[in-house]
Specification:
With 316 residues, the chain is of the alpha/beta class. It has a domain of 199 residues: P-loop containing nucleotide triphosphate hydrolases (Rossmann fold), CATH 3.40.50.300. The strands form two sheets. Strands 6-7-8-3-9-10-12-11 form an eight-stranded mixed sheet, sandwiched between helices. It has a four-stranded antiparallel sheet with strand order 2-1-4-5, covered by helices on one side. It starts with a strand and ends in a 6-residue tail after the last strand. It binds adenosine-5'-diphosphate and magnesium ion.
């Protein structure tokens, strides 16, 4: 049984000017211990998908269709209390540590409050002890629990965010652009740390990023999202060796190529569509160098091709 199984999930944000379909019939499954990379440009629905998994889609978002199973439990059917337990089982690391940490609260108190909200029987002392252990596993001295967030560097703050994600011993950790606000050297350290933690804490990991380059070494599987849809989903190696969807190819060509640094980068022209009124047919067709007759007319189905799923008229 997969640890996470998402089936035909649709998430809408009704707004005054129309409904944004941020996630559109997405199906994904992840086995225990795997790392899934979710990639795509900004505005393609990645964060909304991640937040849906912990039932934290921001207002006015609603899940209008589909199901999300974690360890065999349908999380759409949980009571409020059970949702609180779910947030213990699934850790979430947000993109920007500076806005997620309270500037007037000591680092240790962030942990103590978070732990004790979910585990009511834990004393303050026990929670601090646990915090010390977590910080040490992240390469931060336990004495620093009395520091305030501004006393930490950007990379250290991101370590703290990862620590908070781990504080309740989750089975599944979702990291949403965990290195976007960091420089490349610190980014590499954080990614290496996450790989180590994944083994130490026996985690299943979902790594959300707009940078396809960083999932190359981290993930077993990749889901490429465009305009709310998964357009390609399969094993990382195959997607890097032989991307099928023109959008996946475009993402790979627009990122620095680790294997071939001499190759120049070609950004995809244009930008993702407004999700209130996306183009008809394949939503990528206005930007696609391979678009032909059916593309503006019919939406392609996700079909199995060369051991992965792809939604493109070139293959159906
Ligand atoms: N609270 C909200 N209200 C209305 N629209 C939203 C809200 N949050 C996100 N969206 C829209 O949903 C779409 C997907 O956003 P998001 O999930 O943040 O994508 P990504 O993480 O890939 O950048 C975008 O069009 C965005 O404008
Ligand atoms: Mg996002």
């Amino acid at each position: 049984m997969p640890l996470l199984e998402i089936n035909s999930l649709t998430v809408d944000y009704p707004t005054r000017v129309g409904t944004v379909r941020a996630v559109d019939r997405v199906s994904i499954s992840v086995e225990k211990g795997q790392t899934l990379g979710i990639v795509g440009e900004s505005g393609c629905g990645k964060s909304t998908l991640g937040l849906a998994v912990i039932r934290l889609v921001p207002s006015p978002g609603i899940m209008t269709e589909g199901s999300i199973m974690i360890d065999g439990t349908d999380i759409m059917r949980l009571s409020n209390n059970e949702v609180r337990e779910l947030r213990g089982k699934v850790g979430f690391i947000f993109q920007d540590p500076m806005t997620s940490l309270n500037p007037v609260k000591r680092i240790g108190d962030h942990f103590v409050e978070f732990i004790r909200t979910h585990e009511k029987e834990v004393s303050r002392q026990e929670a601090l002890e646990k915090t010390g252990k977590i910080l040490e596993s992240l390469g931060i001295l336990r004495e620093r629990t009395t520091d305030y967030p501004h006393q930490f560097s950007g990379g250290m703050r991101q370590r703290v965010m990862i620590g908070l994600g781990l504080a309740l011993n989750p089975k599944l950790l979702i990291a949403d652009e965990p290195t976007t606000s960091l420089d490349v050297i610190v980014e590499a350290q954080i990614l290496e740390l996450m790989n180590k933690l994944k083994k130490d804490y026996d985690l299943t990991l979902i790594l959300i990023t707009h940078n396809i380059g960083i999932v190359a070494e981290m993930s077993d599987l990749i889901a490429v999202m465009y305009a709310g849809r998964v357009v390609e989903f399969g094993p990382t190696e195959q997607i890097f060796e032989n991307p099928l969807h023109p959008y996946t190819k475009g993402l790979l060509e627009s990122a620095p190529n680790i294997l071939h640094p001499e190759r120049s980068m070609h950004p995809i022209p244009g930008s993702p569509p407004d999700l209130i009124s996306p183009p008809p047919g394949c939503k990528f067709h206005p930007r696609c160098p391979h678009a032909f007759e059916p593309c503006p007319l019919r939406e392609p189905f996700l079909v199995m091709k060369e051991r992965r799923f792809v939604a493109c008229h070139l293959y159906d």
